[in-house]
Write a structure and sequence with these properties.
The complex is a heterodimer of chains A (179) and B (161). Chain A is mainly alpha-helical. Chain A is 69% helix and 0% strand. Chain A is built from 9 helices and no strands. Chain B is an all-alpha fold and 161 residues long. Helix content of chain B is 78%, strand content 0%. In chain B, helix 2 runs antiparallel to helix 4 and helix 2 packs across helix 5. Classes of the chains: A mainly alpha (179), B mainly alpha (161). Chains A and B meet through helix 2, helix 3 and helix 4 of A and helix 1 and helix 2 of B.
Chain lengths: 179, 161
């Protein structure tokens, strides 16, 4: 069977029991996405590259702890998230959480906010909003993760994911329009 | 694919081929999970025992509050408290070590832990299980030694309020 047709979880099973070289397939499948995700967290390509590399190493070492009934993508994203948070804590460059933003009537504001417009603005202004909001937004629009996946990756309830994404959209709109 | 990305694949795969990084065996995680479980259970048990002991000490010195507190502090088995805290810290640390795929909120673990300890301590005290432990269970030697060492007169029935 062609390895390209295998699911992530099936490849992981083979890496664990048959052929460790197949781990390269996993890296090829995820490195682009993870590098972008990581870069959106730390805003530094070198750091992002180290984070992704360390995450793959950590994933390989702990591959036997992965439950193949669950999604591999959420698992590897979670590892990258943890690594990135560790790096942010070390460098103390986390964008502060701004509590004084006005989120009133956000539903009305968002009515005319089209998907494509959001993606362009997200890419452009992501580093200007607090990490608390930029991370779920990046996962949703740039990595095309579902609310459930984001909930698994960030370990927050789905309702919180929805709230943060909505607030992130308001922030993106407010900040990007000023620029 | 950029050079940087190509490098990530090469670096990681080279480390695997050279044996610099090795996959932990399944047994490693099984043992880790067992240790975590044992650590948390030990922590809960020692904390429940601690609560029982505090209540015994408070009751067995009569109504003089100040004296009871001094007596309690001077004769308190701190090693049990330290053991309970250590077991909890090690348990949570192990959970973090082995936690790669499961959604665990450590605040909830801590809240559940404290709730289990408090409720169990209360139930054990209310049902008189402490007395059973003292007379028939696995704890009589430890409890008797504790009371003897601290000159506490203990009578299960008299001590029940």
């Amino acid at each position: 069977m062609n390895d390209n047709l295998l699911s992530d979880e099936e490849i992981v099973e083979k890496v664990r029991s048959v052929d460790q070289d197949l781990f390269a397939k996993i890296i090829d499948r995820y490195q682009d996405k993870l590098l972008r995700y990581s870069n959106n967290l730390v805003y530094n390509e070198d750091h992002a590259s180290h984070i992704v590399q360390d995450s793959f190493i950590k994933a390989f070492v702990n591959l036997n702890s992965f439950d193949t009934k669950k999604k591999f993508s959420s698992w590897i994203y979670r590892i990258v998230h943890n690594e990135a948070m560790n790096m942010i804590k070390k460098s103390k460059k986390e964008v502060p959480i701004l509590d004084d933003f006005d989120f009133s009537s956000e539903e009305d504001v968002l009515k005319d906010f089209e998907q494509k417009e959001i993606i362009i603005k997200v890419t452009k202004c992501l580093n200007e909003i607090p990490l608390l909001y930029s991370e779920p937004l990046s996962l949703y629009y740039l990595d095309e993760k579902s609310y459930e996946d984001i909930s698994d990756i960030l370990r927050i309830p789905m309702g919180t994911v929805a709230t943060r994404i909505n607030r992130a959209k308001v922030l993106i709109k407010n900040i990007c329009q000023k620029n | 694919m950029s050079k940087e990305l190509k490098n990530i694949t090469n670096i990681v795969m080279n480390k695997i081929h050279e044996g610099k990084i090795k996959m932990h065996s399944r047994m490693y995680f099984v043992v880790g999970s067992l240790l975590t479980f044992v650590g948390l259970v030990a922590s809960v048990l020692s904390s429940i025992f601690l609560i029982g002991l505090i209540r015994f000490s408070l009751r067995s010195h009569g109504p003089m509050g100040e004296y009871r507190m001094d007596q309690l502090l001077s004769s308190f088995p701190w090693w049990i408290a330290i053991l309970a805290v250590l077991a909890l810290i090690i348990g949570i640390w192990l959970l973090r070590q082995y936690d790669f795929s499961y959604k665990i909120d450590f605040k909830i673990v801590l809240i559940v832990f404290v709730a289990v300890v408090m409720v169990s301590g209360w139930i054990i005290d209310m049902t008189g299980l402490n007395d059973v432990w003292f007379s028939r269970g696995p704890m009589p030697r430890v409890m008797r030694q504790y009371f003897q060492e601290n000159n506490i007169q203990y009578s299960p029935r008299l001590n029940r309020s």
